[in-house]
Amino acid sequence: MRVQVDPQAGFCWGVIRTIQIAEENLQQGQPVYVLGQIIHNPREIERLERLGLRTITHEQLPEVVRQGARVLIRAHGEPPSTYRQAWQLGIELIDATCPIVAKLQERVRKFYLQGYQIVIFGKAEHPEMIGVRGVCNGECLIVSSIDDALQRVDLARPTVLFSQTTMDKEAFSKLAEALRQRIRQLVVEEPERVSGKFHAKDTICGQVSGREQHLRAFAAAHDVVIFVAGRASSNGRVLSEVCRSVNPRTYFIESIEELQESWFEGVGSVGITGATSTPQWYMQEVARYIRQRFGQSA
Ligand code: SF4
Predict the structure, then answer these.
(1) Residue 208: CB within 6 Å of ligand 1?
(2) Which CATH number is 100-164+169-199 given?
């Protein structure tokens, strides 16, 4: 049985940057805490915790003051209230917000100050959306589908449409088109016309959407695909569905223990890939395990 780890899978540059910032600060020997899980991947969190990183909640911020630790803001970003609270408590922050998320926050703030109705295609409880909600005083609608948007959006108001950075590009385009037909003053981040067709410019991260085409080819080239990601990873869900759309024998796992022998019976090739928060080293471990444990099942 041939087992291949997707050479293009692994961390996006935003996650690489966040982890580098964490490691550099941990090397200085002082305690470093992170507000919420640094990335949606339990294996990488365990590795960083072995280096001394501690994960805390917002409620635990006052306890950090007593220990003199610095607090890292992860790639998803935080609302302004977190910066205010840290400043009031005298906590030193290490801001590792992904620049793409910071840019989204900045654009939402700009349109909010101009009085637009802000509509965001995203998941309301995702940490990135909590940060973005904060920059517009919570005055935005986070919608999950066209139906959801049509029920809640005020079609008579000047409106701007954004997207969480990790959403599906095609679904966003359909939503933009649906709103465009009904709202006279709609901004979809400078809509473009390419070859006579409407294309919505979006705030979806190219590190996610750019992988889709490659993933389709990768998933189609293997009998079975093992998609490795944390269950809380938003782009993990989006990208695993991309694989499943071309290869129904795509299995989503968070850890090696979830692998099942029946998936590999009679299989000639297995492809292993993952989300933008899945470390290459863990996908290699999964590959080694499959070869040793199930290599004879084929
Ligand atoms: S997926 Fe994109 S927006 Fe999210 S952390 Fe990575 S580079 Fe930044």
Answers:
(1) yes
(2) 3.40.1010.20
> What does pTM read for this prediction?
0.84
Q: Which two tokens stand for residue 297?
A: 């099942």
What is the spatial distance between Cα 260 and Cα 263, in angstroms, rounded to a whole number? 6
Q: For ligand 1, is residue 12 a contact (CB within 6 Å)? A: yes
For the stretch 184-228, pLDDT in tens is 999 996 434 434 444 456 678 877 777 888 999 999 999 999 999
Chain centroid offset of residue 23 CA = 21
Partners of 228 in the β-ladder: 253, 274
Match 């991309």 to its residue by tokens: 242
Question: Among this protein's residues, is 78 annotated catalytic?
Answer: no
- Sequence spans of domains, the chain: 2-9+208-294, 13-98, 100-164+169-199
Rounded to 10 deg, the angle between the 234-246 and 206-220 helix axes is 30
Please give the angle made by the CA atoms of 232, 238 and 241, to the nearest 5 degrees: 115
